[in-house]
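Re: beginner question about structure tokens

> Can someone show what the tokenized structure looks like for a real chain? I only ever see the sequence side.

Sure, here's an example I had lying around. Input first:
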Amino acid sequence: MSLRIPPSVGVEVEVAAAPEAVWSVLADPTRIGEWSGECVRAAWLPGSTHVAPGARFRGENRVGRSRWARVCEVTEVDPGRVLAWRTLPGGPYRDRTHWRVVLEPTATGTRIAQRYELTGMPVAMELLAALLLPAHRDRTPGLRADLERLGRVAGGVPA
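And the corresponding structure tokens:
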């Protein structure tokens, strides 16, 4: 059993929903609770109302009994194609993660590729997270399931 959190993970799925429909759900962080298995809700922070570089939102996460929140800052937007954000260290949480989602049209819908890069995490926090959140030792299945739910929500099918 490894007590490490992978420094990066990438997943890709193809969904039946059109890229515009996937983008409309993805580009609204307040809808993340509809498709994420971990982030149960998010809200824009004052001064932010839509995805644009520098916009900030706060996401609330839950896995089992563990709960935590992160302030996120949008870092890249290519409407309909790319959305990226980073978590900002704050409070007891000193970790930093950069997330990037890329949408590509396909003959039958959209290819969604998501990647995270863990850009900083104190060793003690990593060990604690690996112990308390075993699913974080391999996020691949969970992230793939998130993207499949995103496609279903974008296609008008309840997740």
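Each token stands for a local structural state, so reading them left to right follows the chain. The mean pLDDT is 90.
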